[in-house]
Amino acid sequence: MSSDPRAWIAVLRASHDRLASLVEPLTPEQIRARSFCTDWSIAQVLSHVGSGAEIGLLMLPGALGEGDPAGPEAFQPVWDRWNAKTPDEQAADALAADERHVQTLEQLTDEQLGKIALPFFGMDLDAVGLVRLRLGEHALHTWDVAVALDPAATVAPDAVGLLIDNVAQFLAPRLGKAPAEPFAVRITTTSPDRDWLLATADNVIVTEYPENGPEVPVGEVAMPAEALLRLAYGRLDPDHTPATVTASPADLSQLRSIFPGF
């Protein structure tokens, strides 16, 4: 995982450009069509992206120590305003707000990037942590739009390369839902390569696979890193699981239940 915030910002810029290239040619009917998210149209996904960009800008002065922190009470008016927009406004305004957010991050000086500090749900985020959260949301919501237009769409490789270690470091322990009975499985990925042991008890833990193997035999799952990233975000349903994924049906079903999405 890169420790250079500008590398993360560059990939966020690429994700914005990809989203814009998907959305700008859409007809009003396509804007109103369902996205991968069952309850959201493409316009509503874009509304979420746009409001997230606006909230990111609200939080930035506090993270830089240049203003008061923006608390949750500041977020609801933003969501209400975006929810009140028409689908066409949501689509157009989301791209504009997202551009402002990315451009603002690009224009931060090295000194500003170095002093970013933001307490967030029990974490202390630096510049990389701040952009990492946005990139994860942005890249996966971009996929939510892309896959509605092309069922074979995948998450952009540059985003996967940066975000894949987030599965072990953030998504599994914080968002994974441990089943009633303990479960363990070896997960290997390609592009990039990872070799992990996922184990559950009271929570979900992903660690490097032990050199001599675990104490008891476990199942094995192999998949592209892109598929594992989507799995961790609750986006590896049977209709969007690559043929290159190898796993027993029981293990794959259990993994999907561990990562129901959010």
Helix content: 40-55%
What low-confidence regions span 5 or more consecutive residues with pLDDT below 50?
none
Please tell me what the overall shape is: globular
Q: Strand-residue fraction?
A: 5-15%
Strand order in space, largest sheet:
5-4-3-6
Radius of gyration, whole Å: 19 Å
Our count of helices gives: 11
Structural class: alpha+beta
Order of helices and strands: HHHHHHEEHHHEEEEHH
The beta-strand count equals 6
Give the distance, in angstroms, between the N- and C-terminal Cα atoms: 23 Å
Largest sheet: 4 strands, mixed
Averaged pLDDT, please? 95
How would you characterize the overall build of this protein?
- By secondary structure, the chain is an alpha+beta fold.
- It contains eleven helices and six strands.
- The protein has a four-stranded mixed sheet with strand order 5-4-3-6. Strands 1-2 form a two-stranded antiparallel ribbon.
- The protein starts with a helix and ends with a helix.
Strand-helix topology:
Elements: H1 5-23, H2 28-31, H3 42-64, H4 75-83, H5 87-106, H6 110-115, E1 118-120, E2 123-125, H7 127-149, H8 157-163, H9 166-175, E3 183-190, E4 194-200, E5 204-208, E6 219-224, H10 225-232, H11 249-258
Parallel strand pairs: 3-6
Antiparallel strand pairs: 1-2, 3-4, 4-5
Helix pairs in contact: 1-5, 1-7, 3-4, 3-5, 3-7
